[in-house]
Write a structure and sequence with these properties.
3 domains, 411 residues, Trna Endonuclease, Chain: A, domain 1, 24% strand, alpha+beta
Length: 411
C-alpha cells in the first residue's frame, strides 16, 4: 500500500523532523532545487519554504503534495481536488468519479493519478498494436543491404571478405517514440510506492523488449513530432515527457531517486481562466479571445497580457490573472502600472486585474488620470474576483466566467 502523502500548501514552510521529513530528504531536495535554478523553494539551515509551484514531489519513500490555497478556507482534500481538476481541464486529462474515490480512500498521491493514467494509455496503445516506423540502422551483416559504410567496413572487415558493414533502412517498432514510452515505464516501475502500479508498469515493459534504450536528452524529447499515424499516442507522449523530464535519478549512488511533477500556480490559474473564458465565449460569436498576445514595447522587448478580448479590430478588454490575495483589498502599484501600459500599447479603454475569490474580496474600478502630454483619452482598470472552485467539492466551476464575460459583451 502507498504511504500517506505529506501535504503542504504553497508558500508553507516544512522543517526537518516534521511529519517524516528527514535531513536526507532535505539534502536531496536542495540538490534538485539547485539544478532547477532555485525556483521551487527557498531554504534555511533545516527548512524549506515552498514558492508558487504546486504539484507533487517524491523523494525516496516520501511523497510531498504541494497544494494551492487562495485563502484560509478549505481542507487538504478540497484543495487536492481543486488542483487535480485544474490539471485535468488544462491538460485534457480525464478525471472520473472512480479516480476521485481512489485518491480519497487509499490516500494515493497526485503522482499516482498521473502514473495510473499513463499506464492506461500505454495499455491501450499496446492492445491496438504499437506503430512501426522506418529508420536507418548501421551494422555488420552477412548480406549486403543498403549502402556500404566504408569507415566501419574497413575497420571490421579488412580480412573478412564475407561480411559487409552497411547502412540500411528497417521497418520496426524500435524508434524514439517507443524509447520514450519505455523510459517512462521504467521510471514508474522504479519510483512508485504503489505495488499495483509497479506491477502494471513491469508487465507493460515486456511489450517494449525489442526497443533499444536511447539517450533521451531534453532537446531530443522536445523534437518528437506526431504524425497522423501516431496521433493516438498524443496524451501518452505528453505524460511520458512530463515523467521523464521531471525525473532526477540517483547518479552518484547512495542518494534517493526524485521525481517532481510541479506546475507554476500563476500560469495554471491563467490557463484555467483562459480555457473557461473560451468556453463561455461560445455564446458570443462576435468576441475573439486570445492568450499571451505579444506586442513590441521597447527595442526587442515585448509585453504579453494574459488575455485579450476583441470585437472585430477593437480591443474591448485586457485581463491579467493574479493568483494572490491583494494586500489591503487593493491592487499593487506595479500591477496598476502594468495595466496602464497594456491599455496604451493595445489601444484599450478598459483593463482588468482578475483575482481568485476570497471571503474578503472587494470590487474596485477606477479611471486613470488624463494624459498631460498627448491626446486626452479616458481609460481605466477594474479589480475583479472569480469564484473558480465549488467550496464543498473543490471542483472547478465550468461556468465561472459566464457572468463576467456577459458583462464584457455588453460594453
Amino acid at each position: 500500500m502507498p504511504t500517506e502523502p505529506l501535504c503542504v500548501f504553497e508558500h508553507e514552510k516544512l522543517r526537518v523532523g516534521e511529519r517524516g521529513f528527514t535531513r536526507t530528504h532535505f539534502k536531496r531536495l536542495l540538490a534538485w532545487n539547485e539544478a532547477n535554478g532555485y525556483k521551487y523553494f527557498s531554504a534555511g539551515p533545516s527548512s524549506i519554504k515552498f514558492a508558487q509551484y504546486v504539484g507533487v514531489i517524491q523523494v525516496g519513500d516520501l511523497v510531498i503534495e504541494i497544494l494551492p490555497k487562495a485563502d484560509a478556507t478549505g481542507d487538504e482534500k478540497t484543495w487536492q481536488q481543486a488542483l487535480l481538476d485544474m490539471l485535468s481541464l488544462v491538460h485534457d486529462l480525464p478525471l472520473s468519479s472512480t479516480t476521485e474515490s481512489h485518491l480519497h480512500k487509499r490516500r494515493s498521491s497526485i503522482l499516482d493519478f498521473f502514473f495510473g493514467l499513463y499506464l492506461e494509455d500505454v495499455y491501450g496503445l499496446v492492445r491496438r498494436g504499437l506503430v512501426k516506423k522506418y529508420h536507418h540502422t548501421t551494422g555488420n551483416q552477412a548480406v549486403w543491404k543498403g549502402r556500404l559504410h566504408w569507415p566501419g567496413h574497413l575497420k571490421e572487415n579488412l580480412i573478412r571478405k564475407e561480411r559487409f558493414h552497411v547502412v540500411h533502412q528497417v521497418y520496426d517498432r524500435d524508434h524514439v517514440l517507443h524509447a520514450l514510452l519505455k523510459r517512462a515505464l521504467s521510471i514508474i516501475a522504479g519510483t512508485t510506492l504503489d505495488p499495483l502500479l509497479q506491477g502494471k508498469a513491469k508487465d507493460l515493459s515486456a511489450a517494449f523488449e525489442d526497443v533499444d534504450d536511447r539517450l533521451l536528452t531534453t532537446a531530443a524529447i522536445n523534437r518528437i513530432k506526431l504524425s497522423r499515424k501516431t496521433e493516438p499516442y498524443a496524451r501518452a507522449v505528453r505524460l511520458a515527457q512530463m515523467i521523464v523530464l521531471d525525473h532526477a535519478p540517483d547518479l552518484k549512488g547512495g542518494r534517493s531517486n526524485l521525481i517532481g511533477l510541479v506546475f507554476d500556480m500563476n500560469q495554471l490559474f491563467e490557463r484555467v481562466v483562459l480555457k473557461l473564458m473560451r468556453r463561455s465565449a461560445s455564446r458570443y460569436p462576435e468576441l475573439a479571445i486570445s492568450g499571451q498576445d505579444s506586442r513590441r514595447f521597447w527595442g526587442t522587448k515585448t509585453i504579453r497580457p494574459d488575455i485579450v478580448i476583441r470585437r472585430g479590430e477593437e480591443v474591448v478588454q485586457i485581463i491579467d490573472t493574479k493568483w494572490k490575495v491583494p494586500s489591503n483589498g487593493k491592487p499593487s502599484d506595479d500591477d496598476l502600472k502594468q495595466m496602464y501600459v497594456y491599455n496604451l500599447q493595445f489601444g484599450s479603454t478598459q483593463s482588468m486585474l482578475l483575482y481568485p475569490h476570497t471571503a474578503t474580496a472587494t470590487i474596485v474600478s477606477e479611471a486613470y488620470e488624463e494624459w498631460t502630454w498627448a491626446e486626452r483619452r479616458n481609460h481605466g482598470c477594474t479589480m475583479e474576483h472569480i469564484q473558480l472552485f465549488d467550496p464543498k467539492s473543490g471542483n472547478v466551476i465550468r461556468g465561472a466566467c459566464d457572468t463576467l464575460l456577459a458583462t464584457i459583451a455588453r460594453t
